[in-house]
Amino acid sequence: MSWVTRFNHFNVSVADMDASLGFYQGVLGLELTGRGTVRYPHLDEIIGLEATEIQWAELEIPGGGLIELFRYAHPPGVAVDPTVNNPGTTHLALEVSDIDQAYAELTAAGAPVASQGPVEIPFGDWAGWRCLYVRDPDGVTIELSQPPR
């Protein structure tokens, strides 16, 4: 029996909030629903760090859920190697309506796309889906997937 009821949000720790918003809001087109700075003892307790100061932003994922961006002003963090095959590395998958348009806009914006265009999955449960991987400004992988028409 699972006590999980639904997806709520996905968090990304970022080095530069404006650069990350430029990607998630400006390039991916997600709607910014809130932004601010917090210094809360209860957040320190949840996170397990002391005296945190966090710049945050929330972006709405159409269909449900949020992407939450945190920039730790205090204590500062150290960048990790987010290469997809490193243990602990994650990616976020978003469904899109037009992956060719997404690819064109991503490459025009200079976003690092792993493939030379959308790749169609030839067999299995995902047969006919077209997908690509792109990295955000901190190297976090975002998978964009378009279902078969």
Could you give a short description of this structure?
The chain is 19% helix and 33% strand. The protein contains three helices and eight strands, in the order E-H-E-H-E-E-E-H-E-E-E.
On the 0-100 scale, what is the average pLDDT? Answer: 96
Approximate helicity band: 10-25%
- Largest pleated sheet: 4 strands, mixed
Proportion of beta-strand residues: 25-35%
How many helical elements?
A: 3
Radius of gyration: 17 Å
Element-by-element helix/strand order: EHEHEEEHEEE
Gap between N and C termini = 35 Å
Uncertain parts: none
SSE-based structural type: alpha/beta
Arrangement of strands in the largest sheet = 1-4-3-2
Apparent shape: globular
Tell me the number of strands: 8
Explain this structure.
Helices cover 19% and strands 33% of the residues. By secondary structure, it is α/β, with parallel strands linked by helices. The radius of gyration is 17 Å and the shape is globular. It starts with 8 loop residues before the first strand and ends with a strand. The model has no long low-confidence stretch (mean pLDDT 96).
List keywords for this structure.
149 residues, alpha/beta, four-stranded mixed sheet, 8 strands, 33% strand
